[in-house]
């Protein structure tokens, strides 16, 4: 990339989850000087902050796994393999969907290795506090970190924050939840140790135990089918998704109440397992994660909003920049998920304009902040798809700088394919 401007960075990325890491690496591989900002002390997003130990959306549904997302995502899974994880497609016994199983500590280390390898300037323990905007361009962000506040200029920006933090501060209009303020439920995945590694979880016995608990327990379990259960790689701990909490709004008070109730539920449910199920006598709660799992907050305005019809029909387009292959998974009611499969070839395209901010020429979206209606959002929000949209956003941002603030979709698609991405 030819240096044409005097900014501190070519591309600044807000958020260090799957989308942010992919955006930063995609931009760096395209020749950009990149800054990656993350509020926690580690990268990984929901996988490391909320113990979502499964990459969803890397593969299509079907009897055999068919890859839908490659590029940076494939580099991540390859790196995981070098540190003891399988990194291959695993079929969930509960849903039948293909996922990749994770370990949080291995993932943190693997992502550290990758961003260092590409020379990305990573700023952990740092938040975007404010932005400077001139007309239809962002000029700079003020970062709040451990050493105070600093001003960072860039030629292009990517919002991969999950909560549309950068877009919101830039004045981009947004809606909360489905447009009427209704948000998808929160879930706190829990990790349970003290179980023999060879013990097979008896789902029928678990369902019976839940029925007994729901008759007198303090926190009735909505997932009466037993929820999603996995035995984790390496530790063989039990990973259980059954702590579901509704979220009424985005206030700190609501999140505080949800976090505290979720932890109370987690402890009560583990105590129930110890009492009720053979083989769980020595079970204990290993961890709940730094924060509860958040599915939905703000949706900033994009130039195109994907529709449920786009997903259900498996619509493919000439302006596609990524594949979305995860079924529409909605959690409108806590503990009652619904799934709708993708038609056509088993995936749909994410159009370029869905990752472009409305009203700003140098801001792109990656991950769950891309343009999507409530139905389409149920598919595109997962981490596997976030890798794909994040990488596309990073490459587009880098191309914008390299081309002197012009946009060439064909060039962006070409660069993505050169990086191994699937379109």
From TrEMBL:
Keyword Iron-sulfur listed: yes
Pfam family, one: FAD_oxidored
Superkingdom of the organism of origin: Bacteria
Protein's UniProt keywords contain Glycoprotein: no
InterPro entries for the chain: FAD/NAD-bd_sf (IPR036188), HdrA-like (IPR039650)
Keyword list, A-Z: 4Fe-4S, Iron, Iron-sulfur, Metal-binding, Oxidoreductase
Gene3D superfamilies: FAD/NAD(P)-binding domain (3.50.50.60)
Name assigned to this protein: FAD-dependent oxidoreductase
């Amino acid at each position: 990339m030819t240096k044409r401007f005097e900014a501190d960075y070519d591309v600044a990325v807000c958020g260090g989850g799957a989308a942010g890491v992919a955006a930063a690496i995609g931009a760096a591989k395209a020749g950009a000087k990149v800054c990656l900002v993350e509020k926690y002390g580690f990268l990984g997003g929901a996988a490391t902050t909320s113990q979502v130990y499964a990459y969803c959306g890397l593969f299509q549904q079907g009897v055999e796994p068919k890859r839908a997302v490659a590029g940076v995502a494939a580099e991540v899974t390859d790196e995981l393999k070098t540190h003891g994880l399988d990194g291959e497609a695993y079929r969930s016994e509960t849903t039948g969907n293909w996922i990749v199983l994770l370990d949080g500590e291995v993932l943190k280390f693997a992502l550290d290795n990758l961003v260092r390898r590409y020379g990305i300037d990573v700023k952990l323990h740092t938040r975007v506090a404010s932005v400077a905007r001139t007309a239809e361009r962002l000029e700079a962000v003020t970062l709040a970190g451990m050493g105070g506040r600093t001003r960072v200029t860039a030629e292009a920006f990517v919002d991969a924050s999950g909560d549309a933090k950068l877009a919101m501060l830039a004045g981009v209009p947004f809606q909360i939840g489905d447009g009427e303020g209704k948000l998808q439920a929160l879930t706190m995945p829990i990790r349970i140790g003290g179980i023999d590694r060879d013990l097979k979880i008896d789902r029928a016995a678990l369902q019976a135990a839940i029925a007994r608990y729901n008759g007198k327990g303090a926190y009735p379990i909505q997932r009466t089918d037993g929820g999603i259960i996995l035995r984790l790689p390496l530790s063989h701990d039990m990973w259980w998704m059954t702590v579901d909490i509704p979220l009424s709004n985005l206030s700190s008070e609501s999140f505080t109440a949800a976090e505290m109730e979720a932890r109370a539920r987690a402890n009560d449910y583990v105590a129930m397992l110890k009492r009720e199920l053979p083989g769980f006598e020595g079970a204990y709660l290993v961890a709940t994660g730094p924060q509860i799992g958040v599915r939905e907050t703000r949706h900033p305005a994009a130039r195109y909003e994907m529709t449920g019809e786009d997903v259900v029909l498996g619509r493919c387009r000439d302006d596609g920049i990524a594949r979305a292959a995860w079924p529409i998974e909605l959690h409108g009611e806590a503990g009652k998920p619904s799934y709708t499969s993708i038609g056509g070839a088993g995936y749909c395209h994410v159009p370029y304009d869905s990752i472009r901010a409305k009203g700003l020429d140098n801001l792109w979206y990656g991950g769950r902040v891309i343009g999507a209606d409530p139905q389409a959002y149920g598919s595109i929000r997962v981490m596997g798809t976030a890798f794909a949209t994040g990488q596309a956003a990073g490459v587009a941002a880098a191309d914008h700088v390299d081309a002197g603030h012009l946009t060439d979709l064909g060039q962006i698609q070409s660069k993505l394919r050169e990086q191994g991405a699937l379109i």
